[in-house]
Amino acid sequence: MSTLLNISQVANFLQVTVRTVYRWIEDGDFPRGHIVRGSQRWFYNEIEDFIRFRPAEPQNRVTNRDT
Predict the structure, then answer these.
(1) 54, exposed or middle or buried, with CB in 10 Å at 0-12, 13-18, 19+?
(2) Predicted TM-score (pTM) of this structure
(3) Cross-strand pairs, 41
(4) What does the chain look like in DSSP terms, one character per residue?
(5) 29, 35, 55, 61: most buried by Cβ count inside 10 Å?
(6) pLDDT digits over 20-60, tens only?
């Protein structure tokens, strides 16, 4: 049996804010999860796969605002 995590647990596990997780979902970079009794949940192994297979994030995001 796999453990189900809520959004707060996912964010805490990934050491990011809940808003960051929602932003990743909106951008298509994070699994959408599953609705269980009206609440969004993720299987622990889905989060492990996200960590294992996601591309590395750049350390400093540079935007070109002069163009």
Answers:
(1) exposed
(2) 0.75
(3) 34
(4) -PPEE-HHHHHHHHTS-HHHHHHHHHHT-S---EEETTEEEEEHHHHHHHHHHSPPPPSS----TT-
(5) 29
(6) 999 999 999 999 999 999 999 999 999 999 999 886 664 44
